[in-house]
C-alpha cells in the first residue's frame, strides 16, 4: 500500500510542476528523479538503490505513457501497475 502512495505522490509532484506538454521534458524528468530518489532513499537504504528504483519506475511509466500529461491522467492505473510495483521488489532483493 505504501508503494502505491509513493507512486501517487510522485505523480502529484509532477502535476504540480508541469504544464500540458507532449513529451517528458528534461526538466520534468529531473524533477521526477529528484522527488523519487528522496522518497526512496529511506526504504532502499542507499542513494544508488533509490536511483535504480526510480530508473525502473520511470522506464515503465514512460513506455506506457510517452508524455507526462497521459501519465498524470492515469495516476490510478499507474499506482496499480504491477510493472511499477515490481520495481520496489527488484530493488529490495538486491
Please provide a written account of the structure.
- This protein has one domain.
- It is globular, with a radius of gyration of 12 Å.
- Helix 1 (2-17) packs antiparallel against helix 2.
- It is built from six helices and no strands.
- It has 94 residues and is mainly α.
- The model has no long low-confidence stretch (mean pLDDT 83).
List the helices and strands and how they pair.
Layout: H1 2-17, H2 26-44, H3 47-64, H4 68-73, H5 75-80, H6 82-93
Q: Which sheet architecture does the biggest sheet show?
A: none
Number of helices: 6
Number of domains: 1
Beta content comes to under 5%
| Number of β-strand runs | 0
Give a quick precis of the structure:
It is built from six helices and no strands. With 94 residues, the protein is mainly alpha-helical. The protein has one domain (2-93).
